[in-house]
């Protein structure tokens, strides 16, 4: 449930003269290709999709892109015959060889770049964790129907354990990645709240060692911005539309103790935590406590249905339906969900990322 900290889809203007410009090639083969099929080189996540280049696949069922890397590090998407898509990390100087699996054209092997070796390792391990989480989410839903509190608590504990194990693996890999594009991507899988020291140390390295790398500059800026929101600060204003398309501002709740809750219908850990949030809300709602929920959904129907299904009865639900590009998430430096900020009656942040019993105890203290 992590956002790419480096905001790979964003662009900043830099002087080309300051950059190290190097050639690179991406070549490959697939038995699935047909005569006159095309391969496309794209920038993923852009709207509309940016297509940089296209080549016709040869009679030998091979394709080759030859280009210059202008920015010392770019995340590209290769689109083969509009049926097979995959990410390639390029810093310049690479000779990438791609092989598509003979039986399953959705599976590709990418050789010729340590960056892409790391990328495959990171995403492969994360996929395993997601699959386990999806299975546990189903089990959690069944336990919830049976009011099996012990089973629900065990599932939350087990999920937290595998999340911590994965985080430990990522942190162990980052030093060997150095100031590479893969190191930036790895921060995707770190909880900034818990791992800010690691993130800031990497940002400092990029600032010193690769000051002209576009993605490095974005990463450094984002890391500094995230560090800027601390306990004791006045919470930045949020004013997004409700499920009824009416603007609801965070400041409209001034005078109450407010929990800003960043979540999404697609976020398994968020949905697991929602029963605790509902319980806390029902206990403290008449004592000056309110919740301001910010969804990182893209699909309004999914968002609205999740609100109803999880019984999120408080009125302040907002979203701009921009997923990780949510202006509120960016303003608060939210790169993992669920994420919460507890505000006092003056709108100052008094705690962050409290859940379950920890949130309840803090509210007992504040509202007594």
What report would you give on this structure?
By secondary structure, the protein is of the alpha+beta class. It has 3 domains: 18-110, Immunoglobulin-like; 116-228, no CATH class; 239-367, Glutaredoxin (3-Layer(aba) Sandwich), CATH 3.40.30. Helices cover 40% and strands 23% of the residues. It contains 9 helices and 15 strands. It has helices at residues 114-145, 149-177, 181-186, 192-209, 214-228, 268-284, 300-310, 327-332, 356-367; strands at residues 22-29, 38-43, 50-56, 62-69, 74-80, 84-90, 95-100, 108-111, 239-241, 247-249, 257-263, 289-295, 316-318, 339-343, 349-352. The strands form 4 sheets. It has a 5-stranded mixed beta sheet, covered by helices on one side. Helix 1 runs antiparallel to helix 2, helix 4 (192-209) packs across helix 5 (214-228) and helix 6 (268-284) packs parallel to helix 9 (356-367). The longest helix has 32 residues, at 114-145.
Task: Give a brief description.
This protein has 368 residues and is an alpha+beta fold. It has helices at 114-145, 149-177, 181-186, 192-209, 214-228, 268-284, 300-310, 327-332, 356-367; strands at residues 22-29, 38-43, 50-56, 62-69, 74-80, 84-90, 95-100, 108-111, 239-241, 247-249, 257-263, 289-295, 316-318, 339-343, 349-352.
């Amino acid at each position: 449930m992590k956002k790419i900290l480096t905001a790979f889809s964003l662009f900043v203007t830099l002087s080309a003269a300051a950059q190290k410009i190097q050639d690179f090639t991406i070549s490959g083969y697939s038995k699935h290709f047909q005569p006159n099929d095309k391969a496309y080189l794209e920038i993923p996540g852009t709207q509309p999709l940016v297509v940089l280049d296209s080549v016709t696949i040869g009679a030998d069922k091979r394709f080759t892109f030859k280009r210059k890397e202008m920015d010392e590090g770019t995340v590209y998407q290769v689109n083969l015959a509009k049926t097979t898509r995959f990410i390639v990390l390029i810093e310049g100087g690479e000779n990438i060889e791609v092989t598509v699996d003979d039986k399953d054209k959705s599976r590709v092997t990418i050789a010729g770049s340590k960056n892409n070796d790391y990328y495959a390792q990171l995403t492969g391990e994360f996929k395993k964790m997601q699959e386990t989480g999806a299975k546990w989410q189903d089990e959690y839903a069944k336990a919830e129907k049976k009011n099996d509190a012990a089973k629900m608590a065990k599932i939350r504990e087990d999920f937290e354990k595998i999340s911590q194990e994965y985080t430990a693996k990522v942190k162990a890999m980052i030093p060997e990645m150095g100031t590479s594009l893969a190191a930036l991507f790895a921060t995707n899988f770190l909880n900034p709240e818990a791992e800010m020291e690691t993130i800031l140390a990497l940002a400092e390295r990029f600032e010193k060692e690769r000051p002209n790398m576009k993605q490095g500059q974005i990463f450094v800026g984002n890391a500094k911005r995230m560090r800027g929101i601390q306990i004791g600060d006045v919470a930045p204003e949020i004013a997004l539309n409700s499920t009824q398309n009416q603007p609801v501002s965070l400041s409209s709740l001034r005078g109450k103790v407010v929990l800003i809750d960043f979540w999404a219908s697609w976020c398994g850990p968020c949905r697991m935590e929602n029963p605790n949030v509902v319980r806390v809300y029902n206990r403290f709602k008449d004592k000056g406590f309110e919740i301001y929920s910010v969804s990182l959904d893209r699909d309004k129907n999914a968002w609205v249905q999740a609100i109803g299904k999880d019984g999120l009865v408080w009125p302040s639900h907002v979203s701009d339906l921009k997923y990780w590009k949510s202006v509120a998430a960016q303003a608060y430096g939210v790169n993992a969900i669920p994420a919460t900020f507890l505000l006092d009656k003056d709108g100052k942040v008094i705690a962050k990322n409290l859940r379950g019993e920890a949130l309840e105890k803090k509210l007992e203290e504040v509202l007594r």
